[in-house]
Amino acid sequence: MTLRTNYFELAPKAIQILMSQEEYLAEQFRSSSTLTPVTWELVKLRVSMINQCAFCVDMHSKALLEHEETVERIMGLAAWRDMPFYSSTERVALEWSEHLTAAKPVDDAQYQTIVQHLGEHAVIDLTIAINAINSWNRVAKTFKPEVGSYKPG
User: Fold this and answer.
1) Which of 7, 33, 70, 116 is most buried (most C-beta within 10 Å)?
2) Tens digit of each residue's pLDDT (9 = 90 or more) over 65-91
3) Alpha-carbon distance 109 to 31, whole Å?
4) pTM for this entry
């Protein structure tokens, strides 16, 4: 396999913008009473599956295992609507993730439904998180870091 540009080394200021966003989101999800770090990782994994980002699927699967997630919940994301393993909040977050990742318009009824379920601040954080993982997926798919090279911790 041909090695591609090391974007962390050649564009550290640009990558720091993405990393700062991750730090903000980690803080928000740790302190949220609605959205948890596990929900955030489920969203990142599901979006990475949709975008077929192998590096990110590997990374977020490992992150979920670090959170002591079950293999059933991790594998079940591919068909989460038909699996009994997810809470109502996780289902709302996954639905929102798929909708935004597909770049579909958000109508008023959809917006009101998610705000009623999660609250305005959580909707903002979740929307930014979905944008962030879509961005990371595109970067990783372009520069193709080695799948399996991510080491948790």
Assistant:
1) 7
2) 999 999 999 999 999 999 999 999 999
3) 28
4) 0.92
Angle at 63 between CA 61 and CA 67, to 5 degrees: 110
Q: Cβ distance 140 to 52 under 8 Å?
A: no
- pLDDT above 90 coverage of the chain, percent: 87
The pLDDT value given to residue 1: 53
Distance in angstroms (rounded) separating the CA atoms of residues 102 and 146: 26
Query: Which is the CATH superfamily of the domain at 19-142?
Result: AhpD-like (1.20.1290.10)
Cite the DSSP H helix spans in 36-119.
37-50, 54-66, 71-76, 88-101, 108-118
Neighbours of 74 (CB within 10 A): 20
